[in-house]
């Protein structure tokens, strides 16, 4: 039977033999072969990384598309506001026309700039009293006679206000009920 010392030495020898080598004896060619044998699919972190990169690219493309769409809508909104400001300026100051805007307006197209231009142009080029669009003392623009006649004709065709001569549906019933109620009131007064 072996002694304890012999057993200890035998165990240490087996442990030393089973210990891995430090790799000092391996060459760089062996290391490169080992790296080539490792497949990227074996590492689950690579799959996650690829998935997140793909999602990032997709979100970036969507963000760029959204930005282009927002810029287009903002440009359309600015154009509509400028057109609206021009219409308001033309209705406020009759001497400001499309030709005046095309020939003289050099601003940036903001509604405030258009309103300032129209006001300054109207001050520099007032309406003459002999012109068809004269300004009345109360500040209103004088309407040409033909337009005034058209306005009267429209009002006669479609009357507005309290009195409307065109009968409406149910008017006959209301008149009959009013007459009946008036008779009842008169009858009640006479019987008392």
Automatic annotation (TrEMBL):
Q: Coiled-coil intervals in this record?
A: 63-90
Which key words are in the record?
Coiled coil
Does this UniProt record's set of keywords contain Coiled coil?
A: yes
Q: Which residue intervals are annotated with compositional bias (Basic residues) in the record?
A: 182-192
* Annotated segments matching region Disordered: 1-47, 150-192
**Where is there biased composition of kind Basic and acidic residues?**
154-181
- Biased composition range(s): Polar residues: 9-21
From the record, give the transmembrane residue ranges.
Answer: none
Q: What is this protein called?
A: Scaffolding protein
Which species is this UniProt entry from? Bifidobacterium longum subsp. longum
